[in-house]
Amino acid sequence: MFSLTEKDRPIVQLLLNTGTCPRCILRFRCVGSQTIYRRPYRDLMKDLEEFLKNNQEKEDTVCCDVVDPPCKRIRLEHTEGPDDMNYNGALQQIPSVNDENTAVENSAVKVCNVCLGILQEFCEADFVKMVCQKVNSADYQFTSFVFSVSLPPQLSVRERAAWLLVKQEMGKLGLPLAKDDIVQLKEAYKWIIHPQLSEELGVPADGKSLFEVSVVFAHPETEEECHFLATACPDCFKPAKNKQSVFTRMAVIKALEKIKEEDFLKHFPCPPSSPKDLCVALDIQCNNGAVFVAGRYNKYSRNLPQTPWIIDGERKLESSVEELISEHLMAEFKADSFNFSSSGREDVDVRTLGNGRPFAIELVNPRRIHFTAEEMKALQQTINNSSDKIQVRDLQLVTRSAIGRMKEGEEEKTKTYSALIWTDKAIQKEDLAFLDDIKELKLDQKTPLRVLHRRPLAVRCRIIHTMKSEYIDEHHFRLHLKTQAGTYIKEFVHGDFGRTKPNIGSLLNRTADILELDVESVDVDWPPALDD
User: Which residues belong to any copy of the Pus10-like C-terminal domain (predicted)?
Assistant: First the structure.
């Protein structure tokens, strides 16, 4: 139910005379019932006409009773004949009950001077069907949706002008009207559109849904109406790299908060003039929230970088761990793009063995989001069959928050390595025995020369927890190390021109270098292991 009293009569008449649509009139009369806004446009117009025609012998209050229906679209077919359902001219076909009342009749056929048609044409069933056709053709998986709308910034200017008009009229009656008392245009539009979209799509509207349907409106005819604000409030309009125009909705709202009422009225008509054209729906977009896939990978090649190796625009190697995994995920999830992360990284010539290195991939705007455990296992097998350079295990869907556990392990956990080492001077097995007895060896590692171009210069304290040597011949031995995460192993072996102290060379009192390095374990207990 909504009610208008005798004191509302001059306001309603004034707004109708100036070309305001019924739903905007309800907004400016602070009517907060969602159900009322969902009623067919012609019914609302009839209600206002009847209200204005009432004489003083009738009750001061006119009530329009509406039973709140379930969250379903009110079908306009019940009030319109089949010939009336013309999307391009539905408003012009809505008749007036009282042909003698020119003001009321004109308000029925004109584009609203406040909402520019948003609460008129774009609440009709044909537009809703067009939106849903766009959604369905995009082939997304979703179980609910959130609807967002982008309005032309000049709507805020027109809204301000209409508010000043109504506030002035109410002031004559000794009644206040704060800006916050008015029902916001976006809010009213969503009240109307949500049930219709929900019925057409067959899923509920949910403000927390990860699937977003968005509509971008524009009104070229009036797009310059907010430009006067740039002169009045220049500080509010600053160029931004990612914005095509300085006249964003937020900038306009900020300027409207600063400008004085008398200055506003000098530059903008009150009431706002009636436009010739409706708004246009510039774009209808769909977007699914990101999906996260995690697992562990083994890398068996000594000629494969973790991520694409590109220097000065030139690709150095044809593939990478990231690409070998993500190409299959991108295809199955039908995503726009991806972001790869892992618990640390290995050099291009380093293998990762054992139970592998934890990784996670964020799939941006995926069309497909539902996968069973069996389907994920099959996807894992597809990745493993595609290359002999890598293998993945424990492939699974995870949440964004769970990825934090992987990143925590980068610096806090331990890692185990196997290094093949060469020495310039001959060694005997006995020369290595003391290495096995060293525990918790503290290192000072200055940022290695090889990574100084991408890492800040610093001295980092790292710990070698244990070492175990394996003698091969007079110039070669294998060293198994358990270290703090973040330790530069290659530099610990050769010393990096004295930038890592102590190092294997200094401990053995001879020149040492590393020939091969393998990561044998990354001791991060994530993601959870899955049964084979």
Answer: 292-523
Confidence band for 110, pLDDT divided at 50, 70 and 90: confident
Whether the ω angle into residue 176 lies within 30 degrees of 0, i.e. cis, is no
| Mean pLDDT on 445-450 | 96
In angstroms, the Cα distances linking 262 to 224, 236, 247, 352, 408 are: 20, 19, 22, 71, 58
Contact between 214 and 186 under an 8 Å Cβ cutoff? The reply is: no
Beta-sheet pairing, 291-299 with 351-364: antiparallel
- Just list the catalytic residues: 347
Q: What are the tokens at 179?
A: 């800006």
Look at residue 411 in the predicted model and tell me its pLDDT: 66
Find the mean pLDDT for residues 352-372. 97
CB neighbourhood size of 408 (10 A): 13
C-alpha 250/C-alpha 236 separation (Å) is 9
- What secondary structure does DSSP assign to 67-114, as a single string? ----S-PPPGGGTS-GGG--TTTTGGG---S-TT-HHHHHHHHSPPTT
- Same fold for the domain at 290-412 and the one at 415-522? yes
Confidence class for position 108, pLDDT limits 50, 70, 90: very low
Helix 154-172 with 9-17: angle, nearest 10 deg:
140
Delimit the domains of the chain by residue range.
Answer: 6-54+111-225+268-287, 290-412, 415-522
Cα–Cα distance, 298 to 316 (Å, whole number): 22
Say what the pLDDT of residue 80 is. 37
Tens-place pLDDT, residues 168-209: 999 988 889 999 999 999 999 999 999 999 999 999 999 999
Q: Looking only at Cα atoms, what is the longest distance across the chain?
A: 117
SS (H, E, C) 191-205: HHHHHHHHHHHCCCE
Contact 366, 374 (CB under 8 A): no
Instruction: Name residues whose C-beta falls within 8 Å of residue 244's C-beta, 6 or more positions apart in sequence.
Output: none
Best CA proximity match to 321, nearest among 386, 366, 376: 386
| Nearest one of 188, 187, 209, 183 to 198, comparing CA atoms | 209
Identify the residue whose tokens are 């708004």: 279
The residue that leads in pLDDT, 421 or 93, is: 421
- Between CA 48 and CA 4 the distance in angstroms is 9
How far is Cα 409 from Cα 407, in angstroms, rounded to an integer?
A: 5
* Contact (Cβ atoms closer than 8 angstroms) between residue 480 and residue 493: no
Quick one: DSSP state of residue 290?
P
Alpha carbon distance 229, 46 (integer Å): 38
Average pLDDT over residues 339-351: 95
CATH architecture, range 415-522: 2-Layer Sandwich (3.30)
Handedness of CA 236, 241, 245, 250 (dihedral sign): negative
- The SS3 call for residue 316 is coil
- Per-residue confidence (pLDDT) for residue 109, from 0 to 100: 57
* pTM across the whole model: 0.81
CATH dotted code for 290-412: 3.30.70.2510
The average pLDDT across 25-36 equals: 93
- What pLDDT does residue 173 have? 85
